[in-house]
């Protein structure tokens, strides 16, 4: 019991008096039954003022917190999320009295402050009477809204199903256009039809060098080398560009670039955020899995299935297990204030990501109530949760790790380990038998020798040699060598960050009222989003010995099916987005009513159906998009079109874009010659300035060190610590990975300029760039400048640009007495800062 | 809400908001756009003649603001309310007694505990007669300018999530900070300085590091910038050794020529112009930022006021004085951490309460009072909102069988505000007799945030940002009222 403040204790007497009805206003006789009119009088005089001053602001209809209205007797009896507010059978056990009594720290009303004891006494008496009341109406001062009679949220019905993205994908006929010679691919026909309808003409083709640079960045995130540019410019074959596209699609760089887009969408990170921001063990295997999947041109339906239910697919593969790391990439508070709620937060992270990444729907908005703008009932949210219900909560350790070697390999590894142990025992014995007499001959036996293994060995070696002679010693040395090698051999099995379920039978799933994890409502079973008019979700009975419920496999098969209207559309939109700078739907994670409408709906559907027809293979789709005239247009503005369609909704030209953070960093390393193209493995740690580390509670904690070579690897391989991001990436709008990121920002601000001009990173790379120039272009300044521009800008430099660079370096030397070497460094720094370097035409 | 993608100028909504200098989502977007001429200006921007549109350009508040800037003195770790500003005489009597009391902290939920009597005496100060403990004798002299909120509550008694809530309103990682919201809503009036500045304790950063000044799902434009009190104040502000300002000027001139030539055939792309301008701004920032933070030229008397002449108060004093110079120059939001790293390096007094609080209060009391007095005498206090407090308070009982250490307490704790249209000499809300739980006029962190936005002329229930299918708000979808009782 909490000690009552003095003031409250003093009022206890008056409080008791009230409860007993002694001398309270409005009653004339002690304990005599009241007439109905008297009861209503008591309500009007005593109760109503309390409700009006302390309750109806949140429970009056304008707001209905906790689902509870307190405006008429029916609403009290109906109650809110946690049940009826009053009980007529046992008035003293009424929830309303419990709440105002403040006895339960989690249910205290009004939240701002406990009512006074006389007020509590009045309400207690009133509830005891059966809560007689006249309805409170909107005409009262204090602003009670009318009782909402109907919820105005979109319903699942024939009408709402007509919304464009819920409709099945419809493959339209390829439009007939006037300027048919421009049509190189069906894509062009769809685009041109719209342009012609709006009396616009497509921009002329881009310059060859421009097109090449565009293709390189789009597919690999890296610039072409001068040799590659030169070869392409010289190639006059009609399929010259086609060859380039095919070569780039076959390059491992393609997977690295496109994996980055997907990693943004699935909130990939190597750590958990929050206080400890701890390591997600082996998360990098998921990153490598994504890169590898793109490089192998894994069909997208398979890619979806593996991430959603790779552990439930047959045959079970290492890829399948690794892919389910998808569920484990989110933020995780290892010390939540409310564990029950935190467990639901994990499901919310899964629903949010699954909904937006695969379906382009904000299913997450239906956690607390029916979605307010899309026809997604709250029940559908929890039905989706029920697919995930069996997933063991995130924890450090075994809940999140699975061995990924196939069974036979696992067995081999175990046998191997056994064999190693056996052999080591043999070796140990044989070595000891040789050493024993030698040691026995020492003045103080074993204690004469150093204790460290290495020290002991080097002290003992010469003595053994002396004792047994050269040939036997050779044998002895080989034994030692074998023993050491066996010791260093890793016999552990590779593990992947992955899903694990509690077993074949998960706990039941309930709708959580208002999203409150402590207030379960109706029980729900796995089912797909009703607005998509889906088949019934039938979960087969798990086989004996099954370790999971099999529910996610059912979800996966529905997601990755051509009958699902969204999955192919959403993915094709992403592919389009990363080629054209924006999706056909500009809100790639939201195909609902708050999202943008497609600028070219027929094209999107045509592409989606084509994706399915091509066996869900993305490479063929990249190829088709890039070989269109639409992709190959110039980005130059034409005044009439610009005036008519400034945002290029109709695709009358190609949109310029700034390179993304990783592209900028990787390009810097590529042009200065330091880029290390090694693939895969645990994340690397570029140096982060100590000023930035100082922001951590333990500076440097969780940030390892890598060799300079490792630090020069592509940005996709950088360790992604949620609370510590490499400055150049952070400042150039790398994704915030706490939640799914559908599209990068492109901010321009002066702190970026400071980082690009003054950071250790860009200055260090500028020096490396200058060194490369001196090596490859010799000592002539003009040659150095020309090579720098050629490397950075991917075309033969304009005369003016070369002259300007030479003048800059000369001026530094002449006017400011700067050494030639430093002047070249500065020129290199300048080149890395050029708009032309970080923008793509 | 409008549906046509044209309304969003062909960008995703997130992009649209920052690029258009948003801050008015949820106010009837189209109407706002027409009223502000944003749609028209966007058409002009396409002609390539429009100059750099600073994403932090100042924006009109929704109504007349009382405050222009905020200085948040963040007592990281959680100072004990009953040992500082929440006077509980009863606790002295109960010292050492085990009594029933419901608590929840790092050590879990408990129903009884051994009372640790306050280790400092309280005296009355000022016209208002406010009781303040001997931990803050200097702040005590300013009580007539301060509004104390004794009934603060938060959702978590664990540092990680509670810190995130005090800074972002949410206990989960990923949302923008208070300073981000303010810069998003109001922009910054000084383009040569960051709009959201964070200064750290010399002991280190707070737990979760950069998450405490992250812009979350908003663009990086709105994230906090760390400002150091020694050396170059901002990361990469100055060129590396061996590069003079003259060299850099030449580089920028030549870079400008290259970029102008490149832009000439792409005049419709205003982002290119913006990037050109950003380099000039950066150059200006190199000279203006050090001036803003250079306190050497301040009169000796001012330095003394902030405790710069005493070793233990020197650091926090420098930071407070820098904060004044920053808000004077239009920086919107300055946050200074008292306490860093872990355990007793901050206010997290689990072990020896006296040692811990004497240390941290002793380092900050004089500088805080100096700041308040200096702001007042320069007239800046009228437009500067000062906030004091941590992510939660502490329990009246001992955490362990022995010793004076107190565990965390989010059921009730004290924060205070001063200036920026806040009443002085008032106290609102009460905890119970033990100081264990707020019982009168309870306020949530959301109410504190709502008060800050309100004073800045922004309706906390209308300032929203569209993300993940929802108009997100600092005060959450359910909204929160400002603390009217402390608003003048």
Count of helix runs of chain A: 35
CATH architecture of the largest domain in chain B: 3-Layer(aba) Sandwich
Structural class of chain B: alpha/beta
- If interface size is counted as residues with C-beta under 8 Å from the partner's C-beta, which chains form the largest one? A-B, 116 and 124 residues
Broad structural category of chain A? mainly alpha
Averaging pLDDT over every residue of chain A, what do you get?
Answer: 90
Q: How would the global form of chain A be characterised?
A: globular
**Rg of chain A:** 35 Å
Look at the structure and give the CATH class of the largest domain in chain B.
Answer: Alpha Beta
Query: Strand-residue fraction of chain A?
Result: under 5%
Main features:
heterodimer, A: 841 residues, mainly alpha, two-stranded antiparallel ribbon, 6 strands, 47% helix, B: 488 residues, alpha/beta, Alkaline Phosphatase, subunit A, 2 domains, nine-stranded mixed β-sheet, two-stranded antiparallel sheet, 12 helices, 19 strands, 18% strand, globular
